[in-house]
Design goal:
The complex is a heterodimer of chains A (108) and B (113).
Chain A: E1 4-7, E2 10-14, E3 19-25, E4 31-37, E5 43-49, E6 52-56, E7 59-64, E8 69-74, E9 83-90, E10 96-98, E11 102-107
Parallel strand pairs in A: 2-11
Antiparallel strand pairs in A: 1-3, 3-8, 4-5, 4-9, 6-7, 7-8, 9-10, 9-11
Chain B: E1 4-7, E2 10-13, E3 19-25, E4 31-37, E5 43-50, E6 53-57, E7 64-70, E8 73-78, E9 87-94, E10 102-104, E11 108-112
Parallel strand pairs in B: 2-11
Antiparallel strand pairs in B: 1-3, 3-8, 4-5, 4-9, 5-6, 7-8, 9-10, 9-11
Classes of the chains: A mainly beta (108), B mainly beta (113).
Chain lengths: 108, 113
């Protein structure tokens, strides 16, 4: 958890609003993945990033390797977006180092 | 639909028993992993195998042992479970070992009573 600091740890949003999650890395990340862990516990792949930006529907993610951070933007939050969001960094290969997660609750 | 399959979904056992969890991936990947997610939801790597060869072995107790029959299968055996072994164990796979996207199974929740 210390090598990948994720913020905020918890977040509550009204349906239809926007927000941003962030990960700061103290390791030299080469790639970043973002996952959503749903209430059943499944880790759903959201983004796999080399330095740069990707967008998928209401989600947009950026990985800035020079400044050692990644962000996940959620636009027009929906109830089904609720869950725990994890970022994970690859450093030297062979494994992912995970952040501590952001617990998101979207209210109607 | 997940392409990394884990069994069982849940397992409850007593301290001192042996348990074994199975994992199979149908993605044609050559690297497989076991991660442990604790009660605080923190995810940590335990083992990584590439083409049936162990390449990562983090500091885990000796009672944990991975077993790979081929590159599509990676099982996890725990001899003589302890209460602190209660967690969710997540299997994953990827194509290659560097700069590669990792895909996870649904996890096996172990409760040691």
């Amino acid at each position: 958890g210390d090598k990948v600091k994720q913020s905020p740890s918890a977040l509550s949003l009204q349906e239809g609003t926007n927000s941003a999650l962030r990960c700061n890395f103290s390791i030299a990340a080469t790639t970043v993945q973002w996952f959503l862990q749903n209430p059943r516990g499944s880790l759903i792949n959201l983004f796999y990033l080399v330095p740069g930006t990707k967008e998928n529907g209401r989600l947009k993610s950026t990985f800035n390797s020079k400044e050692s951070y990644s962000t996940l933007h959620i636009r027009d939050a929906q109830l089904e977006d609720s869950g725990t969001y994890f970022c994970a960094a690859e450093n030297m290969g062979y494994k992912l180092t995970f952040g501590t997660g952001t617990s998101l609750l979207v209210d109607p | 639909e997940t392409a990394v399959f884990q069994t069982p979904n849940y397992h409850v056992t007593q301290v001192g028993n042996e348990v074994s969890f199975n994992c199979k991936q149908t993605l044609g990947h050559d690297t497989m992993y076991w991660y442990k997610q604790d009660s605080k939801k923190l995810l940590k790597i335990m083992f990584s195998y590439n083409n049936k060869q162990l390449i990562v072995n983090e500091t885990v107790p000796r009672r944990f042992s991975p077993q790979s029959s081929d590159k599509a299968h990676l099982n996890l055996r725990i001899k003589s479970v302890e209460p602190e072994d209660s967690a969710v164990y997540l299997c994953a796979s990827s194509y290659g070992t560097v700069n590669t996207e990792v895909f996870f199974g649904k996890g096996t929740r172990l409760t040691v009573v």
